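Write out the bound-state structure for protoporphyrin IX containing FE.
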Amino acid sequence: MPQKPAATMADAIAAYHSYVSGQLDELRNHLGTLRAAVANADTPGAQGAWLQAQQCWQRVGAAYGSFGELGDAIAPGSRGLQGGSADPEFKGLRRIEYGLWHGQGAPQLLPAIDQLAKDLQALAAKLPGLSTDPADMPLRLHEILEDSQRDHLSGNGDQGSGMAIALTRADVEATQEVLDLLRTLLQGLKAGFPALLDQQLAALLKVIDQTRTGGTWTPYRSLSLLQRQRINGALGRVLESLALVPALFSTD
Amino acid sequence: MNLERRSFLMGSATTAAGGLLVACAPEQKEQSPAVTDVVPFHGDNQAGVYRPADQQASACFASFTVIADNRAELKTLFQRLTTKARILTGGHRHDQALPTEELNGVDGAPPVNSGVLGEDVPAANISLSFGVAGSLFDREEFGLKARKPKGLTEMKVFPKDQIDAAWVGGDLMIQICADSQDAVHYALRDIMKATRGQLQLAWKINGFHNKPRPDGAPRNLFGYKDGIVNPASTESLVWINGNSGQPGWTEGGTFLVVRLIRMLVEFWDRVGLGEQDGMIGRHRASGAPLGKDKETDEPDYANDPEGNEIPLDAHIRLANPRTKETSGSRMLRRGYNYDLGVDLNGNMQAGLIFASYQQNIQEQFEATQTRLADEPMTDYIEPFGGGYFLMLPGVKDENDHLASGLFA
Ligand code: HEM
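---
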């Protein structure tokens, strides 16, 4: 397990890479379960496995297209595709989500799952050699949750599952992970700031978890306006704080 | 409140932005005393009701859900809104000091100012008026039940209303008026940035106030001069006082009724002028009551008991029959036009943000609306949203804050 908190940015990046490779291993396991469920025409099972896989990918914290094209292949959206969600170019986890919630079965989905498994392997293989800009980690700390707002809670990324809240929760966990890695450094730059972020992230998790009933996630659009407002409020508050992080680390 | 170096306010800082900034603003003397684009924030009553005398051209009525968790956080919210209002209503230059809660204290962090109005924010006659809905008092966590103003119910649904759930509700109203739409937008965005964890928008609507065409009261979207008749502030119909039967903390406040009323302009334009005039009770061209010459002429209902001149069911006649018994039901109207775009079928979704201010919602707004229930104009309008709010008493000076009486 990576060392937390890291004493230098280089250590933080190294620790983050080892965290990511652990997540990718887990993701591959979920993909195996997903493949088996699809092959057995077990749609509920496949949907559950997809959610696990997608949450796992969110926990990687791959905001703003980090890991380059390798990362982009895992869960791109359907934006900008001529045929939208039905476009043959659409691939990755979101493509599988689309199929699982639109009545598709093994013939359409197995090729997509196998392609994803290949792309994942390529990413995992390249990961140790990837160099990461020191400015990347602070940006990541801020922008993972910007992506939640832009892609999940907006409804834009959804391909039918309605799991925006579950995915946002995983994004919060990714943010907490990165915060843990940067904690010592951040504390040195602004004393007390990590604790403030802890508190605001916890407040966000609290309102997120309040939307769960009996261990299941309510599709986002079925939540009441007040529930969505509470989430947006807690998210907005922590984002205003996280927006200071890149500047704190900036050496300009 | 701590201040950064450099402190200087544009505009009449004493009234607009509070002595605390003035205290370290020696350069203030160099400013010309006649600043015309500042609507003072401090006063016994809030701005945006009778002040400024001429309604600003642009407005936003923004209704928020309060998501603060407890009473202490709610109070802090009102204090924060007060600070915001002081700054926004005075205008500020980029090199002026700001209170510490406005600053993030991090070099190179995202700018505090969105830049929409440039680096120097003009006063632009921005007025910010804050109101609370009955729902705020019903929330257990705030412990304000005993403080609830009388008659601050949910908005009553009248027989011809077509209410859309997306356009009602909210616990806190912020009415923003300014000379231009960009200033209104700036103010709203600035406030929201500072209050994300306490306030979330429930609905909002932008409005515009027309220029006089060619003179007198500006016209509404039916083409009729609107806002000709309004009670004076001295008439004791608008501000809550010691005789209003309300909790003491509300004195100096007023009740706001917002009604979002779609106007079926396509249909209206297919009606003859004589019929239009009859529905309103005024001549379209001059704004004069039917049979009179000037908009300022008074209708004489006593000598027109059959409605030969002004039909008995004309809007102005039902709204204000000008009798002793109905005199107390008058109210201040200060609405705005809105234009929201397109309806389901390609017609214009446009109309009136009806805004009236009164001491008593039931005896004034509701009594009037009840008289208007079957007016012929109802065929051409569709109320679809809005709400009832208590507009808070004014913030007296730099030591006071919004809703201070509520927490006293
Ligand atoms: C889209 C809806 C409405 C339109 C187009 C409209 C239009 C007008 C017009 C053209 C006038 C005459 C000008 C003036 O005196 O200001 C007027 C007056 C008035 N309206 Fe409305 N109005 C609307 C809704 C309402 C509502 C909802 C109320 C209150 C319940 C109301 C209450 C009054 C009152 C009290 C007057 C003044 C009458 C007087 O004192 O002579 N109006 N309205």
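---
Residues B 220, 222, 224-229, 259, 261, 263, 280, 282, 315-316, 319-320, 333, 351-352, 354, 365, 368-369, 372, 381 surround protoporphyrin IX containing FE (CB under 6 Å).
Confidence is low (pLDDT under 50) at residues 1-34 of chain B.
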